[in-house]
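Sample entry (90 residues):
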Amino acid sequence: MPDCAHFAEVTGALRQITGLVTTTTDAAREIELSTKQQTTAVEQVNAAITGAAQATRETEASSTQTLQTATQLASLSRELSRIVQPQVRA
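Predicted structure, serialized as tokens:
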């Protein structure tokens, strides 16, 4: 009969191992899912940062163009004033 007791003990230990393996597998799946979700979130943040950086570059280019246009308009305005002022005095 000691063999039956030993068999029961081994069977119980194997059931415990099976339960622990199942728990470990479930935990590994949850970790994998969480990792995938974090990867997706990081990719979305990177895309948002890239978009913001592009918008900043476009705003800078637009501001530079606006400054150049304003400078040209100021120069034309001064030249127009010089042209018009002699006619006003006459």
